[in-house]
Amino acid sequence: MEIKDALSISEMAMKWVGAIINREEAHKKKEEEALKSIMSSLFQTTIYMKKVLDSDELRSHETEHELGRMWYETSILVRPYNPDLAERCFFKGLFWGNRDRFSEQELIDRKMKLYHIEEAIAKAIKSI
Fold it and tell me: What domain range is 101 assigned to?
């Protein structure tokens, strides 16, 4: 084997290692984006629910529909990392599209209550 061949092999190996590292970094960045999205959805939902609990007159169908869209988008971002949590986010979106769609027991059974989502976020934070 000539030195020229060894250098070519070495350069190719370095490119492969670089590609693997870049892919891992991109994966980590997307995972962090998913986590930010679910934390934002949870935060916005918590703020809205606090307002409504303080005064039911502040209930807004427009805000609820926006929360639904937010939870749908979150479900798509979360799906590659945690399909179970993504499914719960999807159903959370359905809930905000029509708050009468699920009974209180269904919300609990499907682990859609905010404290369920908080627990899932805490686990995700520990795993990153």
Answer: 33-127
User: What is the per-residue burial (b if ≥16 Cβ within 10 Å, else e) of 42-75?
Assistant: beebeebeeeeeeeeeeeeeebbeebbebbbebb
Counting the structural domains of the chain, the total is: 1
Residue 18 maps to a domain: no
Task: Give 82-123 pLDDT, tens digit per residue.
Answer: 999 999 999 999 999 999 999 999 999 999 899 999 998 888
Could you tell me which residues come within 8 angstroms of residue 21 by beta carbon, excluding any fewer than 6 positions away? none
In the structure encoding, which two tokens stand for residue 47, read together?
């703020």
**98 within some domain:** yes
Give the tens place of pLDDT for each residue, 50-90.
999 999 999 999 999 999 999 999 999 999 999 999 999 99
Q: Is residue 24 one of the residues assigned to a domain?
A: no
